[in-house]
Amino acid sequence: MKFSCPTALMFLLLVSRSLAQVAPDAHETFHIKPTKDFEITGAGNSAAWKDADWLTLTQRQGNKSYATKAKLLYSEQGIYVLFHCDDEKITATNTQDFADLWKEDVMEVFFWTDESSPLYFEYEISPLNYELALLIPNYDGQFLGWRPWHYEGDRKIKHLVTTAKDAAGKIASWTAEIFVPYKLLQPLQHVPPQKGTRWRMNMYRVDFDDGRSAWSWNKVKTNFHDYKNFGIMLFE
Q1: What would you give as a GO molecular function for this chain, any one (predicted)?
Q2: Is the peptide bond before 181 cis (omega within 30 degrees of 0)?
């Protein structure tokens, strides 16, 4: 098939325009299901989790090829997150909340509730069940976290961690279960979410068994705070 120059130019313009329309939605999309509230155990053994699909985190860096996955659910009161990490060694020494947990083994989840504002929530949980909760204003890569105030009562995140061992008594995996109440996230916009609400979200894992290995759900270009490349979470 032959094209004249004007025809070829028009064809290329149409293709470019079509690709530009697809690009904004090229991120991974996850449909989060509703649930009634339940008590977390750290093991993810509540019947509610049976209705949730696993999300696989892809290894982006390092030599340790550990399987890493997560589940999410939402209720009228908050967001439930379940992390499962295959592991052979727990590399964690921090024994207080709000420490630099990302320098050791850790799981992280980020919620960006309003795409019109560069403001998002970050949560980290260590294998020793210590946490870091931050609100992040990020302006053109300039960011620093702010800790929650009056972090208590129904504003406090619930979190529990369990570890599993193999037949020889060696570490085989660790699991973290958390509940993030909407009262902590307010007054962020689109909180609490309704059916049809869209948030941007990403999840990460860092492991230090043999150097630094890193996983993420959606691939980011610069660092974990590359929020424009977060995935899409749609509330069913």
Answers
A1: hydrolase activity, hydrolyzing O-glycosyl compounds
A2: no
pLDDT of residue 63: 85
Closest CA to 173 of 203, 202, 205, 201: 205
For residue 37, what are its two tokens?
A: 């509230």
> Can you name the residues that pair with 107 across neighbouring β-strands?
125, 205
Dist. CA 236–CA 223, nearest whole Å: 29
66-124 pLDDT per residue, tens: 999 999 999 999 999 999 999 999 999 999 999 999 999 999 999 999 999 999 999 99
Identify the pLDDT of residue 31: 97
Q: Are strands 29-34 and 68-74 parallel, antiparallel or unpaired?
A: parallel
Write out pLDDT tens, residues 132-152. 999 999 998 889 999 999 999
Cis ω before 34 (30° cut-off from 0): no
Strand partners, 74: 34, 79
Domains along the chain with CATH numbers: 29-235 (2.60.40.1190)
Of 157, 236, 234, nearest to 200 by C-alpha is 234
C-alpha gyration radius of the chain: 20
* 19: its two tokens: 């690709």
Q: How far apart are CA 193 and CA 137, in angstroms?
A: 21
